[in-house]
Write a structure and sequence with these properties.
By secondary structure, the protein is an alpha+beta fold. The chain has 15 helices and 12 strands. It has a 5-stranded antiparallel sheet with strand order 1-2-3-7-6, with helices on both faces. It has a 3-stranded antiparallel sheet with strand order 8-10-11. It has a two-stranded antiparallel ribbon with strand order 4-5. Strand 4 and strand 5 form a beta hairpin. The chain binds 5-S-methyl-5-thio-alpha-D-ribofuranose (SR1) and magnesium ion (MG).
Length: 429
């Protein structure tokens, strides 16, 4: 099918010309852009693994069109992928927007047939991962990310949401089978056997990468996390909350791309973000001109990692106290009987459980980005293979320890101290 032909069910993938005509035919969007197709400028900027992303600018305004392709862009049409992921992305975005409109892009239009979302062009926002590679700091990032996590996870859980609505939503997102399958395979399973699409920095990282296949404790832990991922329908997750899914300026942060959304364990989203911040940390020895040039920046990354968790826990605790209206831990059993201590103890135990899950998921998510199909630019942009493999080996060690020892870390600073210790131990003679 060429780019101008209509596909099955009326779907057609757009290009930089046809997308303009498409938007011109939508009165509300055309009005926002301020002119007909001939007055629009369009470019395709998608650099993710799955979709087309167009930026369209008109005389009056601009929009982004994100369109699903019927296959995995990273691999090609040998790996088909359902267009319905755009439907799940739209449904997740609208729910997140209802909870925290300032932390997601404004939404303008959804077209199920063409599997696309028209939304705000975030400018001058840049993808967080690129800014971290450049060594930039963002004062509000942890506050924004921790709040986003607490608000979206609490409000879509049985701690808050009406149980009938939640069950309907669990059923709706349960159909996001293909994208969940990507995670199930690429994160929890394929790194641990000779899967066709696995790759790593070879031969430098061969030792630790191949050792995973014989590491029984790591393999069992990875599958235990997969069990949680499939069975614990705790809250509506973003599902792919890495540093490429956040766009930032000095004062703003927006979460994008929730096409992997489904009801799963809260710790999966938190762990994804922590994993990517730890990967950024371990990549620091490959960036900067001189050895140690990025040490202070590494510390900022670890402080930010800690703060994400602390902001999450504080906001979640406030919501627990003030907005616990769901079927779980009802106030009738606790506060209404004067048992405020019971409510506080239950909260502490709940957060301990989320922290354990977060730790395990963070470990699994680090490992998959080092030896699986999809890697991170933080590491990939380190040109010298020996330096890159050194950074990756340290990150791999961290991932394994988080995965296997989840539940044995006292608090978030135990995780950041482990990162410091691994980096110190393996970079000093
Ligand atoms: C085949 S898709 C590979 C990865 O890209 C996305 O960002 C998800 O993380 C997925 O696992
Ligand atoms: Mg994405």
């Amino acid at each position: 099918m060429n780019q101008h032909q209509k596909g099955e069910g009326g779907y057609r993938p757009f290009d930089v010309d046809s997308v303009k005509g498409y938007l011109a035919s939508n009165p509300a969007v055309a009005e926002r852009l301020g002119g007909g197709a001939e007055a629009m400028q369009a470019r395709e900027v998608g650099d993710g693994n799955l979709n087309l992303v167009f930026i369209i600018e008109g005389p009056k305004g601009s929009v982004v069109v994100k369109q699903a392709l019927p296959y995995v862009r990273l691999v090609g049409d040998s790996w088909p992928l359902p267009l319905k992921r755009a439907f799940f992305e739209w449904n997740a975005l609208t729910r997140q927007a209802a909870i925290l409109p300032d932390r997601v892009p404004s939404l303008y239009h959804f077209d199920e047939t063409n599997a696309l979302v028209v939304m705000e062009y975030l400018s001058p926002h840049i993808i967080l991962r690129k800014e971290l590679i450049a060594g930039k700091r963002f004062e509000h990032l942890a506050e924004h990310a921790g709040t986003f996590l607490a608000e979206t996870l609490f409000r879509t859980s049985d701690l808050h949401m009406d149980t009938a609505q939640k069950k309907a939503d669990v059923a709706l997102f349960a159909d996001n089978v293909a994208l969940c399958a990507i995670t199930e395979n690429l994160v929890f399973t394929e790194p641990y056997f000779d899967a066709e699409l696995n790759r790593w920095t070879t031969p430098e990282l061969d030792g630790p990468a191949l050792a995973l296949r014989g590491d029984r404790a790591v393999k069992i832990a990875a599958q235990e996390m997969l069990h949680l991922f499939t069975a614990k329908t705790e809250a509506l997750l973003h599902g792919d909350l890495h540093t490429g899914s956040i766009m930032v300026t000095e004062t703003d942060s927006r979460v994008i791309d929730p096409e992997f959304a489904f009801y799963g364990p809260m710790g999966f989203d938190i762990g994804a973000l922590l994993a990517n911040l730890f990967l950024a940390y371990f990549s620091q020895d490959g960036h900067g001109q001189q050895p140690g040039a990025r040490d202070e920046y590494g510390e900022w990354l670890l402080e930010t990692t800690e703060k994400v968790w602390r902001v999450f826990a504080a906001r979640f605790s406030k919501l627990w106290t003030e907005e616990r209206t769901g079927i779980l831990f009802p106030r009738s059993m606790f506060e209404d009987q004067g048992d405020h201590v019971g409510a506080a103890v239950a909260l502490e135990r709940f957060l301990d459980g989320v922290f354990t899950d977060t730790t395990g998921f963070a470990g699994a998510k680090m490992i998959r980005r080092l030896v699986g199909l999809a890697h991170v630019e933080d590491m990939e942009s380190i040109e010298d293979p020996a330096t890159r493999a050194g950074c990756e080996a340290r990150a791999l060690q961290m991932g394994c320890e988080l995965l296997v020892n989840r539940g044995r870390f006292s608090d978030i600073s135990a995780l950041t101290n482990l990162a410091r210790a691994i980096r110190r131990e393996r970079t000093q003679p």
